[in-house]
Amino acid sequence: MRKLILLIVAGLAVGALFGHLMMSVPGYWLIRVGDTSVQTSFWFGLVLLLAAFLVLHFILRLLSGMIRPVGRFRTWNSRARNRRAMKRTVRGLVAMTEGRWKRAEKTLVKAADDSSTPLVNYLSAALAAHYQGNYTQSQEHINQAQLTTEGADTAIGLMQAQLLIDRQQPEEALAILNRLDKQLSNHPQVLKLLKQVFLSVNDWEGLRRLIPRLAAQKLISQQEREELEFKAYRELIIFEAKNPSDIERVRSLWADMPDYLRGKTELIVLYAEALLQANEDTIAERLLNHSLDHHWDARLVKRYGLLNVDPSRQLVKAEKWLQERPNDPELLLACGRLSLRTGKWTKAQEYFEASQRQRPSGVVCAELARLYASLGEHNKSQLYYRHSVEMLAKSLPSLPQPSDANDSQPDGKRAKKRA
């Protein structure tokens, strides 16, 4: 109600103002054509001009609509087809979600020409064809997507790479991903797929260089990073150690390795083995010395006992460790072996027997058997050889033996007896 009153008051004010203008600004219009003339007041002529303009505008719009009915129909038809295409696209995507690949592919391709997003239709159809095993048809849909949409190279390339990985064709996928990686540095999905491909083709060098980029983009956790780095460096050291003449490559890997990995026993042993194969025993000894001073591990002790750099110096070092760990069976075994290298037979015997008392072992029994045989004590040698075989037999799988009551005869002889 209040708005209505305001409108009435405003209308009266405008009318009063217009009336005042008509009274205070007199004038007239004179139009003369030949002997005919028309004269009217200024304000009435102004109203006529305004009315003529409105009528002319309405007539022009009407004529324009009558002249272009086909264009209007085409526009309407295009919008209608687009709406139908969108509905079909939705039905196709729903069918994809439900696992009805054939129906999804057919529906999505049929709707692609009229769809406002043909890229989505063709890529989804390619995925549906891939799940059906129709790889050729899938590639055709990807090619069609490339033709219909400009600037979609990244999306199309990622789709191709993912499908190739699923088809167990990692080399082809790697070629696409390397091209995308050059174009789009540190693209998250590209990096993820590169990690997947490097693992599948055992490209440990590629994975080693990729890991920092994955971590920088927060695409892997700290735990996964450590696991991947450990695996990559381990496999690289194993591979490079096959060529002892190129020990510098192994050195370079060890130098580039993160500090926390240099404390991993398995990597230390692998590096030490590589150094020994390259006849760099002294460096291997220093490595094992340093590692055992900071990180005690039975595997390192065992490898140290097998070194032959300076047995006397090594034995002194091992006996120093033994003061801190007098009951360590692996260290006692290492001291026994180093004693053998220095010609201290009695001391070697004592260390071996002490190791055997701490933890019975077939290896220690074999060392004692060999030592006693060399010393001419054959009875003791035979005893320890028997102990060694018995301990080794305990680790064998349980399998039938000829001594079993039901298996005392070979299969062929049992068959003849039955006959």
From TrEMBL:
Note the Gene3D superfamilies from the entry: Tetratricopeptide repeat domain
**UniProt keyword Transmembrane helix, yes or no:** yes
Quick one: where's region Disordered?
395-419
Q: Spell out the Pfam families in the cross-references.
A: HemY_N
Spans through the membrane: 42-63
- State the membrane topology: Multi-pass membrane protein
Say which domain of life the source belongs to: Bacteria
Compartments annotated for it: namely: Cell inner membrane
Q: Which InterPro entries match?
A: Heme_biosyn_assoc_TPR_pro, HemY_N, TPR-like_helical_dom_sf
Signal sequence region = none
Any Gene Ontology biological process: heme metabolic process
Protein name as catalogued: HemY protein
User: HemY N-terminal domain location, by residue?
Assistant: 27-133
* UniProt keywords, alphabetically: Cell inner membrane, Cell membrane, Membrane, Porphyrin biosynthesis, Transmembrane, Transmembrane helix
**Which SUPFAM superfamilies does the UniProt record give?**
TPR-like
Its primary localisation, in coarse terms, equals membrane
Which Gene Ontology cellular component terms are annotated?
A: plasma membrane
Q: State the pathway, as annotated in the record.
A: Porphyrin-containing compound metabolism; protoheme biosynthesis
What does this gene product do?
Answer: Involved in a late step of protoheme IX synthesis.
